[in-house]
Design brief:
CATH class: Alpha Beta
Number of helices: 10
Radius of gyration: 19 Å
Order of helices and strands: EHEHEHEEHEHEHEEHEHHEH
Strand content: 5-15%
Largest sheet: 7 strands, parallel
Number of domains: 1
Structural class: alpha/beta
Helix content: 40-55%
CATH topology: Rossmann fold
Shape: globular
CATH superfamily: NAD(P)-binding Rossmann-like Domain
């Protein structure tokens, strides 16, 4: 890792973005932190400075507006002369059946989670292609490979992020550019995203187990910064198993995941909400969402095994019907 890299992080006010900012601050990076909420960003900036960041700047704005991502690049160059690493982690989500979800809410998820990432990449490349160096990390999701019931827009957006990375790497290869693009696919993380989600399921939303701490993904991002050669990185062993199973038996795995979602992610009755789709969220602006992401991994492995068993059950049932 270069001494004091210049790192731009979107979605830096909470969750994975905040955890990533903390990690790079401890490594004396020069940070540009991007999110919609100015006061939450200021809090993260103070935290990063205390942890050892060499320089910290904030850019309050919506990444679906390209002016925000351009300001982030301009800020990094004005203060430090370059951009070494751009991390796209700003995302929103919405839960509900496709036919019941308001079209405007659905489109807003795609606007932030696809257009926002594309804006970030475009702004980052403006600097990186000129300096002929740099790494872009796009945080996708396992749901980009294994779509989830009640989360069509989010699953679509993360599939698009995976495709974006693949197209970019091909184009950069043709351009003989040394800029790297790495896509990271996390599982369910213990972050506040489920507190902030739009939700029209009529039921309270919880994190779908197995739940992992954000630090698991931060470790993968740090590894990508040190060695960017591996282009796609699925986080956790059970996550990799799930993706492999889905490639082999997509219908069975999707059905098993749908049952798990209905049984474990939806709780008591709750009013509809647009969450943080249109305005910055309230509390919590923390890394953890309080979902137990630091509990023993044995429990997570058991739940992953249960999902695999559910998929196997569906396969057997379909065979018996023939």
């Amino acid at each position: 890792m270069n001494a004091s890299p210049v790192v731009v992080i979107t979605g830096a006010s909470s969750g994975l973005g905040r955890a990533t900012a903390q990690a790079f601050a401890k490594r004396h990076a020069r940070l540009v932190l991007v999110a919609r909420g100015a006061s939450a960003l200021d809090e993260v900036a103070r935290e990063a400075t205390a942890l050892g960041a060499r320089d910290v700047a904030t850019v309050a704005g919506d990444t679906s507006d390209r002016a925000t991502t351009d300001r982030a690049v301009d800020t990094a160059i004005a203060r430090n002369g370059r951009v070494d690493l751009w991390i796209n982690a700003a995302a929103v989500t919405a839960y509900g059946t496709f036919w019941e979800q308001p079209p405007a809410d659905f489109e807003r998820v795609l606007q932030v989670d696809i257009t926002g990432y594309a804006n970030g990449v475009r702004s980052a490349l403006r600097a990186m292609m000129r300096q002929r160096s740099g790494l872009i990390v796009n945080v996708a999701s396992i749901l980009g490979e294994v779509p989830q019931a009640y989360a069509a827009a989010y699953s679509m957006s993360k599939a698009a992020v995976i495709a974006l990375g693949r197209s970019l790497r091909a184009e950069l290869s043709l351009a003989k550019s040394p800029v790297h693009v790495v896509t990271v696919l996390p599982p369910t993380l213990d972050t506040p995203i489920f507190h902030h989600s739009a939700n029209v399921t009529g039921q309270e939303l919880r994190a779908l187990p197995p739940v992992y701490p954000a630090s698991d993904v931060v470790d993968v991002i740090l590894a990508a910064w040190k060695r960017p050669g591996k282009p796609e990185r699925t986080v956790t062993g059970p996550g990799k198993v799930l993706v492999r199973q889905h490639k082999r038996r997509p219908v069975a795995v999707e059905a098993a995941l749908a049952r798990q979602t209905q049984a474990l992610q939806l709780g008591k009755p709750a009013a509809d909400t647009t969450g943080n789709l249109y305005t910055p969220s309230g509390e919590p602006h923390t890394v953890s969402g309080g979902w137990g992401g630091r509990r023993r991994k044995a429990g997570r492995v058991l739940l992953a095994a249960a999902l695999a068993a559910g998929a196997a059950y569906v396969i057997r049932a379909k065979r018996s019907e023939r």
